[in-house]
């Protein structure tokens, strides 16, 4: 199982990076057999989406698309700017194939300087995941600037919530993977209630 952490920040000293990294640490610590990879957009030279087939991109852009497409689950974090995730993260979602997250599990983390920004998790992140037909684990984590000391998380409650988020991403991914065992079998038709 491969869980990708994606930090949608271009900042070189990112609180969001630290939060996503901590969640990945919890996932790996509690499940040493899984693979975790943390992609930070500031470390990649990602091109802007120009509408071409995602398979035609090269360099860091291709690497990012390939990594995200091959993952089993995700922990995605972004600082909140103007009430939503960053433009850099939006570009990533424009670049990836429409089915890259289909049926996969996503846990969201957001950081910000006002408590009202937690609403972005409900009104921005979750609808985006819905468009991609991804499963969002309950308990997205919003971390206010006050929860950090020297850019490190200093709130025990937030650390507990990050650990729970990581655990839920791994657990739900395992359940979904079991659902697809023997996927060669014909699908059972669904009844439509009228």
Automatic annotation (TrEMBL):
<dbReference type="InterPro" id="IPR051814">
    <property type="entry name" value="NAD(P)H-dep_FMN_reductase"/>
</dbReference>
<dbReference type="GO" id="GO:0016491">
    <property type="term" value="F:oxidoreductase activity"/>
</dbReference>
<keyword id="KW-0285">Flavoprotein</keyword>
<dbReference type="InterPro" id="IPR029039">
    <property type="entry name" value="Flavoprotein-like_sf"/>
</dbReference>
<feature type="domain" description="NADPH-dependent FMN reductase-like">
    <location>
        <begin position="1"/>
        <end position="146"/>
    </location>
</feature>
<protein>
    <submittedName>
        <fullName>NAD(P)H-dependent oxidoreductase</fullName>
    </submittedName>
</protein>
<keyword id="KW-0560">Oxidoreductase</keyword>
<dbReference type="InterPro" id="IPR005025">
    <property type="entry name" value="FMN_Rdtase-like_dom"/>
</dbReference>
<keyword id="KW-0288">FMN</keyword>
<dbReference type="Pfam" id="PF03358">
    <property type="entry name" value="FMN_red"/>
</dbReference>
């Amino acid at each position: 199982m491969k869980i990708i952490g994606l930090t949608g920040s271009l900042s070189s000293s990112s609180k969001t990076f630290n939060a996503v990294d901590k969640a990945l640490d919890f996932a790996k610590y509690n499940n040493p057999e899984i693979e975790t990879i943390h992609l930070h957009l500031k470390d990649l030279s990602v091109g802007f989406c120009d509408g071409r087939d995602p398979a035609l991109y090269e360099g860091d852009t291709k690497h990012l698309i390939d990594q995200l497409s091959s993952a089993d689950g995700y922990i995605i974090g972004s600082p909140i700017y103007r009430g939503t995730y960053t433009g850099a993260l939006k570009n990533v979602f424009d670049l990836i194939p429409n089915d890259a997250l289909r049926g996969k599990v996503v846990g969201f983390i957001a950081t910000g300087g006002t408590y009202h920004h937690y609403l972005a998790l409900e009104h921005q992140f979750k609808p985006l995941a819905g468009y991609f037909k991804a499963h969002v684990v309950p308990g997205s984590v919003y971390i206010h600037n006050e929860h950090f000391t020297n850019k490190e998380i200093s709130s025990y409650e937030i650390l507990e919530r990050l650990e729970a988020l990581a655990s839920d991403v791994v657990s739900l991914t395992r359940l979904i993977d079991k659902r697809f065992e023997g996927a060669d079998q014909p699908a059972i038709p669904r009844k439509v209630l009228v």
